[in-house]
Amino acid sequence: MQELNIVKIGGNILDNPLRLKSFLLDFAALPGLKLLVHGGGKIASAIGQKLGITPVMVEGRRVTDAETLELVTMVYGGLVNKQVVAQLQAQGCNAIGLTGADANSIPATKRPVRAVDYGFAGDVAGPESINVNVLEALLQQGLTPVFAPLTHDQQGTMLNTNADTIASVLATALATKYQVKLVYSFEKRGVLQDANDNNSVIPAIDKEKYRQLKEEKVVSAGMIPKLDNAFAALEQGVSAVVIGDAAEISAILSEGKAGTLITL
Amino acid sequence: MQELNIVKIGGNILDNPLRLKSFLLDFAALPGLKLLVHGGGKIASAIGQKLGITPVMVEGRRVTDAETLELVTMVYGGLVNKQVVAQLQAQGCNAIGLTGADANSIPATKRPVRAVDYGFAGDVAGPESINVNVLEALLQQGLTPVFAPLTHDQQGTMLNTNADTIASVLATALATKYQVKLVYSFEKRGVLQDANDNNSVIPAIDKEKYRQLKEEKVVSAGMIPKLDNAFAALEQGVSAVVIGDAAEISAILSEGKAGTLITL
């Protein structure tokens, strides 16, 4: 099986043009097949504010009303995605920007209204709903897919979808065709033994170690869903998951010398 | 050679949700290989106004300063493009939204400053600069490319490019691989004998007829560049060019019963 590296970058890089440029330079230089998933960043809120759209967050998630859906469709799917694609192209990486609507790559459904109405938030049923063949065709053409955190409902409406979810569902789906390594980039250098010391990276965590770390309360509440996601991806066939700093992407992927490697 | 239909739609449809929906229904139902190019529409100006960006037009073309470039990148490449893609997907047409940066499909150069500085306006050198192989690969995957009127300079910057130009350069480039029919859609039913009578469509114009029409001042100043472009495309290998109303796209393409057919 061919190797495929999937990297998810978040707002902390997207909001900083110099860090973004430096990351894209490193990412473009990575050998082999690769795929990038980007989040949103503060730019959507900043543009939304100018347009008179006030962000509503419930439990850390943006509530996507009709106006906000237009906002994120244009900012994530247009501004951020195309700037990332253009910069990768400038580095000789043949990037192609996608949302889940493009080539019907990630069909989703509007999240059912329960305690909270998240509006136009898209849930992906699972890796089996991903259109793997079209992604394989793009990769075999030498293209590097760059995903914005958007999906669609197959009925004409775009949906706002969490970038971590998109990265993990793509990784799991593509694990049927490739040996997939998934990197969640993050504002710290990895999972830290001491939250205040960015040099206290735990190099590797398996299930037993994770159980210990939770017992000792070393991993924070914010890190637990990331780690749970990572283990879920591994259980569904992803070869390796690394949590680390995007600034160290080459060390993480080419040398295995940075970040926290999650294994079963 | 396989047939490929390339359709360009402009602002008059994009600005009207019902007309757009109706057109996309018809377009999705067209048999065979196809490609859509869309313009911008008034939505960019409307959003720009809210953001405090005043459109500056010189000789009918938008001057693209840095702020306007961000605006059109998000509105054309994000909002308009993804809404069109999602609606086509809902009709079972496997659309994939692209700008010229994606897959380096349309490299361009920033227009040189002469009498007017158009800012971040992109000029395409010619059909030979189009990345035909990647478009062919997408079409052979059963995908329908949907182009926003944006290109890139291969140095990391997006560029604003006229949709008519994109449609004609793509048609010419793809004519090396396919039997290409190019439809310029338009707010009238075709080239009219009497500008005030939308039923006075001239069914066909060849070079000799065009010379006559110009002599008789039947064709307006606004129509001359469109017709010149059409003849240029035909001279470079495009099989047929039709100018007509997007509302009649099925009649134009499936039956050849609407619009003005331009031939050499």
From TrEMBL, chains A, B:
<feature type="site" description="Transition state stabilizer">
    <location>
        <position position="226"/>
    </location>
</feature>
<feature type="binding site">
    <location>
        <begin position="40"/>
        <end position="41"/>
    </location>
    <ligand>
        <name>substrate</name>
    </ligand>
</feature>
<comment type="similarity">
    <text>Belongs to the acetylglutamate kinase family. ArgB subfamily.</text>
</comment>
<keyword id="KW-0418">Kinase</keyword>
<feature type="binding site">
    <location>
        <position position="160"/>
    </location>
    <ligand>
        <name>substrate</name>
    </ligand>
</feature>
<dbReference type="Pfam" id="PF00696">
    <property type="entry name" value="AA_kinase"/>
</dbReference>
<dbReference type="GO" id="GO:0005524">
    <property type="term" value="F:ATP binding"/>
</dbReference>
<keyword id="KW-0055">Arginine biosynthesis</keyword>
<dbReference type="GO" id="GO:0042450">
    <property type="term" value="P:L-arginine biosynthetic process via ornithine"/>
</dbReference>
<dbReference type="InterPro" id="IPR037528">
    <property type="entry name" value="ArgB"/>
</dbReference>
<feature type="binding site">
    <location>
        <position position="62"/>
    </location>
    <ligand>
        <name>substrate</name>
    </ligand>
</feature>
<keyword id="KW-0963">Cytoplasm</keyword>
<feature type="site" description="Transition state stabilizer">
    <location>
        <position position="8"/>
    </location>
</feature>
<feature type="domain" description="Aspartate/glutamate/uridylate kinase">
    <location>
        <begin position="5"/>
        <end position="244"/>
    </location>
</feature>
<comment type="pathway">
    <text>Amino-acid biosynthesis; L-arginine biosynthesis; N(2)-acetyl-L-ornithine from L-glutamate: step 2/4.</text>
</comment>
<keyword id="KW-0028">Amino-acid biosynthesis</keyword>
<dbReference type="GO" id="GO:0005737">
    <property type="term" value="C:cytoplasm"/>
</dbReference>
<protein>
    <recommendedName>
        <fullName>Acetylglutamate kinase</fullName>
        <ecNumber>2.7.2.8</ecNumber>
    </recommendedName>
</protein>
<dbReference type="InterPro" id="IPR004662">
    <property type="entry name" value="AcgluKinase_fam"/>
</dbReference>
<keyword id="KW-0547">Nucleotide-binding</keyword>
<keyword id="KW-0808">Transferase</keyword>
<dbReference type="GO" id="GO:0003991">
    <property type="term" value="F:acetylglutamate kinase activity"/>
</dbReference>
<comment type="function">
    <text>Catalyzes the ATP-dependent phosphorylation of N-acetyl-L-glutamate.</text>
</comment>
<dbReference type="InterPro" id="IPR001048">
    <property type="entry name" value="Asp/Glu/Uridylate_kinase"/>
</dbReference>
<keyword id="KW-0067">ATP-binding</keyword>
<dbReference type="InterPro" id="IPR036393">
    <property type="entry name" value="AceGlu_kinase-like_sf"/>
</dbReference>
